[in-house]
Amino acid sequence: MTGSCSSLPIVKVTFTGVIVSVNxxxxxxxxxxxxxxxxxxxxxxxxxxxxxxxxxxxLEEFMLAxxxxxxxxxxxxxHQMTLGLKQNKLxxxxxxxxxxxxxLTQILYLAVWCRPFKQYWQVPVxxxxxxxxxxxxxxxxxxxxxxxxxxxxxPLPILVRARLPTKRKILLxxxxxxxxxxxxxxxxxxxxxxxxxxxxLIYLN
Length: 205
Prior knowledge:
elongated, mainly alpha
């Protein structure tokens, strides 16, 4: 258990970054605007939109780091739980998949979806992907949700085979299955990302 908690201070830093960035995004404009709106901005509004757009970029980086660090903590715990068991190989496979997903998501986010990079805070943007993050959000969601499903599966066979009273097995399986609530939250977050209108901050909730 000690090993699984060793990275928690970093998680606290990234989570704090998420909170600070959310506050900045919610109190400033960004480049995610209906056509023709940015052209009517005053110099002050334009500067504010550039500032807010930069924090949207920072917010997404903190969100990615925080999400995958939490996965890392849980995988370390699972690794300790499954030492000497066949299930340990699955933990390593899921860990490798998480690393691959994070690296690929970052490469696409920072080097592919929005070029040139400064378009992420340009107002107005020439490439809509630099404001809507549409392709990035789909990519990140695929790896996030699929890895969560794999991580939910890891402890369940162990609990089923464990020599425990049936009621206790059901209770423990229920606790580990709470990950489905995390997956539901991720799906709803993306749903509001894609359906909320320009300027809506409901996805930050």
